[in-house]
Design brief:
570 residues, alpha/beta, eight-stranded mixed β-sheet
């Protein structure tokens, strides 16, 4: 190995990562194929069109079906891990879409009221009416089966009411219910619903007191977490399960959640089966594949650049002036952003109150325009050049070599491809942008601005600092990445402080911080390695702009959900 050049070592590492990625993902999908058959179907009940995912066990089969209802913005395919765990018990799962999601032709109607509880109660009432008909359809179709119902988020609240009203389910599992209020309590008593399990994440501290009150209405006062009350035979089994280090959407895949669900269904229906390999193992394979894919993505610029004829070249600028310019700009840009965020918040709040596309577009477009103008102004002042000269110098990076554009697009495509393969069970797909006009418009408008900002950032911060400290040396890369990453994380921390003010849920804010930091690590890795191997900034600017645009385009829906559920309150 010592006789190999750097390029050969990179090729070997890249090939090895591809093999590891294929083995991990292949093993995961092979395990799934041995456990169950998964199929998707569309059903029509009256005027309602709805899609469902049916996961049927291959080996042992029982006469038990679990109906599953997801939360807002959460796809039915996210139930895959829970369904596969139940398939090992011989249980069939039918996961439905929430109204207004996927191919469902009926919108999720929510009548807005000043009182948050009235708003959610109205939504629940509409949902329950429709899912009664959906259940009756499957009850008639599978007339010899016994049923349980499971929901997450808003789907959990629907499941509680549906089970109480129909009295057809032998078990009810509510995971991180979004609505826990007097309306829900009115449906509960000592025997209704039958065998009632509520699962919350330890980060959902705001819901735990409400869940304890709910369980008192269900017959257990002063309930203690993770302790079984009542018995399954009489239908009075009750438990409040708490999963460690979990919240909301993570509950679909959390080992603690899988364990609670598996045990509850097994004991309710007296299924005498021991699972050899828990679903956690398959999820660990996918998680490991995710991390290997990040390393794989980071090496793409190094491997692809030489194959399309881009080589590390250009001139070094080892002057102390460049070093100072880059540091000054990174500090000033970060501080300017911190000042600008509070100025944008009033418009942001307006967007959450009035969901209008032009308002959101105005917010993100104004931010990018101000950031670009500010960056170019600061650069021109620090360098002693005119604003126009600096602007033209930044734009000129795009027309230096068309191969740079090719490389940026290749990195972005492979980046999305690998992440989509790993996260297929969560159905996170950039393709969704094409089917939603609002998201597509946001992406189209936002991309050129984000690209311009990334070009300015890469050119006048990364290039100046890195070249001043040695260009392509390891020391230069470490210093540059550290400066850039710290500047970005400072902004993330500031954003999280504002979020904590509006969403006093430490677990939720911590999760947002981790996700945003994760995105920044990926951005920094691609930018640093691209520059080392090509001495060009355009490829990373293009690839990272596409990635950021995807995240930003989804943010209005995500924020709207958080506001509607009361996680963020203005």
């Amino acid at each position: 190995m010592s006789g190999l050049g750097l390029a050969s070592r990179v090729d070997i590492a890249f090939s090895s990562l591809i093999m590891i990625f294929i083995i991990l993902v292949g093993t995961s999908y092979a395990m799934e194929a041995q456990i169950a058959d998964t199929k998707f179907e569309s059903i029509k009940i009256g005027s309602i069109k709805l899609s469902a995912m049916i996961v049927e066990p291959k080996a042992l089969k029982t006469n038990v079906i679990v109906i599953m209802i997801p939360g807002i913005l959460e796809p039915k395919i996210a139930f895959k891990s829970i369904a596969l765990e139940l398939a090992k018990l011989g249980v069939t799962s039918i996961a439905l879409d929430l109204l207004g999601h996927a191919s469902c032709n009926v919108p999720l109607e929510i009548e807005l009221h000043e009182d948050y509880n009235k708003t959610m109660n109205s939504a629940l009432s509409n949902l329950v009416k429709i899912y009664k008909d959906v259940f009756n359809y499957y009850k008639k179709r599978f007339s010899t089966f016994r049923f349980a119902i499971l929901g997450i988020g808003l789907g959990a609240s629907v499941a509680i009411i549906l089970s109480a009203e129909l009295q057809e389910f032998d078990a009810t599992i509510a995971i991180s219910p979004d609505v826990i209020n007097d309306y829900i309590f009115s449906f509960l008593n000592e025997g209704t619903p039958k065998n009632f399990l509520v699962v919350l994440g330890s980060f959902e501290s705001n819901k735990i007191p409400k869940a304890k009150v709910m369980m008192s209405y269900a017959g257990v006062k002063n309930i203690k977490p993770n302790k079984l009350y009542g018995d399954f035979y009489s239908g009075t089994a009750r438990m409040l399960g708490i999963t460690e280090l979990s919240t909301g959407f993570l509950q679909y895949f959390h080992g603690g959640t899988l364990s609670f669900v598996r045990s509850w269904i097994r004991d309710t229906f007296d299924i005498d089966v021991k699972t050899v390999i828990p679903e956690d193992f398959r999820l660990y394979l996918l998680l490991t594949a995710l991390f290997s894919s990040l390393a794989l993505i980071s090496l793409i610029p190094a491997v692809v650049s030489k194959r399309i004829g881009i080589f590390s070249g250009g001139k070094r600028w080892p002057t102390i002036e460049s070093y100072k310019e880059g540091f000054k700009l990174s500090i000033l840009w970060g501080l300017a952003t911190l000042v600008y965020v509070p100025l944008v918040l009033p418009m942001f709040i307006l967007f959450t109150r009035v969901i209008i596309l032009p308002v959101f577009l105005t917010v993100i477009v104004s931010y990018d325009i101000v950031a670009i103008l500010l960056a170019i102004y600061l650069i021109s002042k620090i360098k002693g050049t005119s604003f126009k000269e600096t602007f033209i110098e930044t734009i000129s990076e795009l027309v230096t070599d068309v191969k740079n554009i090719y490389l940026g697009l290749i990195v972005a495509i492979i980046e999305f491809l690998t992440l989509f393969i790993v996260l297929a069970d969560i159905a996170i797909s950039p393709i969704s942008l094409l089917y939603n006009p609002m998201l597509f418009i946001i992406a189209i408008v936002f991309f050129p601005l984000q690209l311009m900002m990334n070009l300015a950032y890469e050119k006048f911060i990364r290039r100046h600092v890195q070249e001043a400290f040695g260009g392509v040396t390891a020391r230069a890369v470490v210093i540059t990445v550290s400066v850039s990453f710290l500047a970005r994380v400072l902004i993330i921390l500031f954003f999280d402080l504002f979020l904590l003010f509006f969403a006093p849920n430490l677990g939720f804010v911590l999760l947002i911080f981790i996700l945003l930091t994760f995105v920044q690590i990926l951005i920094e890795a691609i930018a640093a390695i691209t520059y080392v191997y090509t001495r060009e900034i355009t490829p990373a600017a293009i690839a990272n702009s596409i990635w950021i645009v995807f995240v930003v385009a989804l943010s209005p829906i995500i924020v709207t959900k958080f506001v509607s559920l009361g996680i963020i309150q203005f």
